[in-house]
Write a sequence for this structure.
């Protein structure tokens, strides 16, 4: 699925809908997920409807639903060439990005 033309709010709605469906597929109530994630039921409800989405809450719920593996790939570097690998390795030790003029 190409999400490059998707607005952020649409993406949030889509992902929150998937999260809800995953919870239902696993036959868990919002209360079950909330207690296992250390969150309030209202937080889980808001998360599923795309309101007040907090990244830590998403991570907690993903962990409860056994979906944290997908989060590992979220910001992995794209290493498609030797130049990409070289830039990545140089960037590991770099602390500050200088503005280009």
């Amino acid at each position: 699925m190409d999400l490059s033309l998707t607005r952020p709010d649409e993406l949030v709605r889509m992902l929150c809908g998937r999260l809800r469906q995953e919870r239902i597929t696993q036959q868990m109530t919002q209360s079950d997920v909330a207690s296992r994630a250390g969150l309030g039921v209202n937080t889980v409800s808001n998360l599923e409807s795309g309101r007040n989405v907090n990244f830590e809450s998403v991570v907690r719920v993903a962990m409860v639903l056994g979906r944290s593996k997908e989060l590992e790939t979220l910001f992995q570097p794209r290493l498609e060439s030797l130049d990409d690998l070289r830039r990545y390795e140089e960037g590991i030790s770099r602390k500050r990005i200088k503005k280009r003029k």
Q: What stands out?
A: Helices lie at 8-25, 30-37, 41-48, 55-64, 68-72, 82-93.
